[in-house]
Amino acid sequence: MTGAVTVGSGRAFRLDPFALPACGPSSGETGASFVLDRDRAALSRPAAGDRPALEVTVPLADYRGVAVRMEAVGDNGDVRAFVELLHADPALTLRLAESDAPEDLAGDWQAWGRALRLPLLVVGQDGSVAAPLADRSIAMTRPKPR
Prior knowledge:
Blueprint: E1 4-7, E2 12-15, E3 22-25, E4 33-36, E5 40-45, E6 54-59, E7 65-73, E8 78-86, E9 94-99, H1 106-116, E10 120-123, E11 129-133
Parallel strand pairs: 7-10
Antiparallel strand pairs: 1-2, 2-9, 3-4, 4-5, 5-6, 7-8, 8-9, 10-11
C-alpha cells in the first residue's frame, strides 16, 4: 500500500499527506480500497458473491473537507480519533488516519487540509459538522525559554 504507515500494534493507521498519490483501504469490511491524489479519489470494490465490482472516481471538489472525528472506546474514557476526507455520502468518506492518541493526529489533519486545499472540519458526537478554523491553522504560542 503506497503512502500508508501503520504504527505500533495496529492501533494506529496513517496515510502520508506528503506522499501523493496515496492508497488506502476503505472503511468497513468490504475489501474496498482507494487511490487519492490532489484532484480526485478513485474508489474500487472487488466483486463478491452476487455483488458486482464497483469503480468510482470522485472529484476532490465534491468533498466537504478534511474532518477530525472522535469516538468513545469502552467505558473508561478512552477515545479513538479519525482524520477523514468527508463526503455528503458516507460511502464515499475516506479514512486518512486514525489513532488512540488524538494529539498525534492534529498535524496530519492540518497537513491533509493544506495538501488537498480543503477546509478543516470537526465532526461532533451528534454528527454535526463545523469548520472552526477558517485559515486552516491552529494558533500556537512561541515556547517560553527555560
